[in-house]
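Closing statement on the L-homoserine sub-project.
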Amino acid sequence: MVKIYAPASIGNVSVGFDVLGAAVSPIDGSLLGDCVSVEEAETFSLTTLGRFVSKLPSDPEQNIVYQCWELFCETVGRTIPVAMTLEKNMPVGSGLGSSACSVVAALVAMNEFAGHPLTEHQLLLLMGELEGRISGSVHYDNVAPCYLGGLQLMLEEQGIISQSVPAFDEWYWVMAYPGIKVSTAEARAILPAHYAKADIVRHGRLLGGFIHACHSRQAKLAIAMMQDIVAEPYRTQLLPGFAQARERSLAAGALACGISGSGPTLFAICDTLSAAEQVKEQLVNHYLQNDEGFVHICRLDTTGARKLG
Ligand SMILES: Nc1ncnc2c1ncn2[C@@H]1O[C@H](COP(=O)(O)OP(=O)(O)OP(=O)(O)O)[C@@H](O)[C@H]1O
Ligand SMILES: N[C@@H](CCO)C(=O)O
């Protein structure tokens, strides 16, 4: 039996729409992500468990894990009968890379079980394709960090999909999921089809400046560059209380704050644990909307998908 855990991720990280992503894990040691197990069997089956299992499609063939198995078998050229189990611990449509967690855990588990027939690059291509089926367009900013860990920049040139960018060890990433669902496909559909030249120039300056600041170890400059002019101005309308929660987080000591992926999860960066705890308190009191919501203080997860058993 093979069991793989795949962690939560922050798509975009504000400044890199579709091209920057970060994997995160709670500092209390809890596992914020999905697990997929694969066992030998005579015929294929998929069992689903976990806190958010009731939010999955009722037709098992609509589950992205089933589609992972199907595409994996097609790619390796043989049908591999297995019993798969998905532990759906990530809320669906959360902005925490929920579908990416299932896709990455399922494909890594299948590859491990089958004796590694696919390379890292081949697996990433499949992960992007499957994520694209759900969100309506191929983007790697959740699957790449979820699989590889850390802060990842999508390159998609010269046969390289993604490479890691050095982040800042002192940063805490406070993640607040309010408990409501936002569909990635819908949050993409409301974005403009075209942007003004001035916005394109500014976006290039901000993203280039952020990556430069990471490599030259200038944390303050990196924070200053972390501005989202591509998605946040348009998506805020989908996120009740986001603007106020952002103000409260910054007032409580956060250095930067933005939408995680397509939302509704908000992330805030702090450089001390005491600031992170104060920001967490503000978000628990003012951003959560129901019992399904939660706030976690996290660090960058530098490992990515890993074997638990
Ligand atoms: N195993 C799965 N995990 C999550 N969503 C799934 C899964 N299988 C199928 N789906 C379907 O995919 C859609 C999730 O799409 P969406 O991209 O909005 O969510 P998400 O990946 O959870 O979002 P985010 O990346 O913002 O966390 C839902 O309609 C859901 O029913
Ligand atoms: N880059 C994607 C991430 C979705 O989780 C988007 O913002 O639509």
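The pocket of adenosine-5'-triphosphate (ligand 1) is lined by residues 56-57, 62-65, 86, 92-100, 102, 134-135, 142, 183-184, 261-262 (CB under 6 Å). With this model delivered, the sub-project is considered complete and its resources will be redirected to Aim 3.
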